[in-house]
Specification:
The chain has helices at about 1-5, 15-35, 35-60, 95-105, 120-125, 200-205, 240-245, and strands at about 65-70, 90-95, 125-130, 135-145, 165, 175-180, 185-195, 210-215, 230-235, 250. The protein is of the alpha+beta class and about 250 residues long. The strands form three sheets. It has a five-stranded mixed beta barrel with strand order 6-7-8-9-10. The longest helix is centred in the first third of the chain and has 26 residues, at about 35-60. The radius of gyration is 29 Å and the shape is extended. The termini are far apart.
Amino acid sequence: ELHRKRHGRRLDYDERARKKEARSVHSRAKFAQKVKGLRAKLHNKKRYAEKATMQKTIKEHSERDTKKRDANEGPKNAVPAYLLDREGTSHAKVLSNTIKQKRKEKAGRWNVPVPKVRPVGEDEVFKVMRSGKRNKKQWKRMVAKVTYVGDTFTRKPPKYERFIRPAGLRMKKAHVTHPELQTTFSLDIIAVKKNPQSSMYTSLGVITKGTVIEVNVSELGLVTPAGKVVWGKYAQVTNNPENDGCINAVLLV
């Protein structure tokens, strides 16, 4: 400390400190992955407390003070008529409109064409594949429904592939109907946004009735109020693609 007072710090001290702090995240993550037993419990407890504090701070920043009427805070005894409307005001914190909006979007409350769908069980979606030298192992599954995989998709080596998606049941185009124009277009699928049956089906790209998919609408010429071309839009599947051999969907406008 005395040396620092006399001679000052290194010229690159701030940069080195910044880099050290940035690197510390990786070392902490590495430690969290490797740690076991009681040390792991203590570490997780500490991290949980840190995260709770962080969430509290974020919430405090996103809230603001507002005034609202509080019926209980009014005068308790009989009051003259001209004071009847007066009630005490209490300060309450409410979340800002932007956060409320984000939460609504997250909930994904679309007015969808197919609001309710029949539940599809795993035994219907997956067919058990036997493997191993004597066909004793049963950890592989073949997907018996229509799926979507991206252009860059590469299969894992057969030895390690748990979910097999047959090439004959993979689809890349959908017949999408625009509800206002009453016209159907054959559009490319960009991604599977949400399968109502299960999040696992969503990650595997399984398309069943009621699934929300993202389609490429650039060729329709749709534009935003700001004048930008809309590239991707959501559509809901209205048929059973594995029975019909094609995907029929309605655009969510």
